[in-house]
Amino acid sequence: xxxxxxxxxxxxxxxxxxxxxxxxxxxxxxxxxxxxxxxxxxxxxxxxxxxxxxxxxxxxxxxxxxxxxxxxxxxxxxxxxxxxxxxxxxxxxxxxxxxxxxxxxxxxxxxxxxxxxxxxxxxxxxxxxxxxxxxxxxxxxxxxxxxxxxxxxxxxxxxxxxxxxxxxxxxxxxxxxxxxxxxxxxxxxxxxxxxxxxxxxxxxxxxxxxxxxxxxxxxxxxxxxxxxxxxxxxxxxxxxxxxxxxxxxxxxxxxxxxxxxxxxxxxxxxxxxxxxxxxxxxxxxxxxxxxxxxxxxxxxxxxxxxxxxxxxxxxxxxxxxxxxxxxxxxxxxxxxxxxxxxxxxxxxxxxxxxxxxxxxxxxxxxxxxxxxxxxxxxxxxxxxxxxxxxxxxxxxxxxxxxxxxxxxxxxxxxxxxxxxxxxxxxxxxxxx
Length: 432
Ligand SMILES: [Zn+2]
Hints:
2 domains, Alpha-Beta Plaits, 16 strands, binds zinc ion, alpha/beta, single chain, elongated, 10 helices
């Protein structure tokens, strides 16, 4: 490795305390989503940090997107630093929102406590640790190679955990992720420091409703039970649909192993009377339920198309209909995401892969995420194909109690990110 690269890696190690402090500061802003709290605060914090280091920043509120209100505005920040000469732009995109805390914590979820080389807190792993890592990587890069070509962008975006409509989708619509403006995108989601994540599976959510007829519960034969109809739907799913999905295998390198097939989760079922409020001590009234609703969450593969995904579910419903004379149903789509996978020979992939090898002395693993993240919007709306997720942290810890990020992993990832910048913006690959 060249002297400059070694000097850069030392510089990153020298920023260990700064990296810890930055990660802690970010965790201590409790940007819970829903409802989408403190977005403005975290954007102002990032604005102060990055404009103090020569970045031009832009705060963008995603007016009118789901959840946006004056009480809970959807704020985003995009910071850009130009190099000395024309060239390509490398963009690091991190979401600023975190999911609910949930039960079972032994640490303060917004304390950012450091213990045994790990920083604890909601969002530490997913993905404020990744955001802090990219900032430290970029700052160390700027100190080492001030004379770089092109531009570096860092964004902090809202609402990834709830679909990204007030975040990356909105910014993509406004042209922030067009191929004319940005040439390489790295999303520091917690996929592990030695893995390059090429993309994600697709999503199809549908609401299925069965209809019946209300009657007195003592004479159910006078009515038509919508819950029994839904039971028949579930029985048919067990008999034909689930086995068919399990038999579909993908060539995408999806992790974990179980997600290399098509999957479907029954997200919820509601039939009959609404559940009484807590504390209500009365009895339900005796009626035959006249409707039952189910939400299904189907995850699909690059090899499948969404029309088939929908018609497979519809086939189940039609089969049940042919067997049950009074069966009536509706099915409506409520959410869709097309799968995406960046080519393994795309420039950002090969550059980050080479940097992983240089820093960790091992070949990277190429993976695809079982669930989606903001790459979908960068691909579909932004038309940017040269995009990956790469960042420190263990995916399994995301959304769990006592979520943490290891400081050592962040330092390694910061080195990878900086060496990738060196190759893309100074033409100096780490390994030669
Ligand atoms: Zn995330």
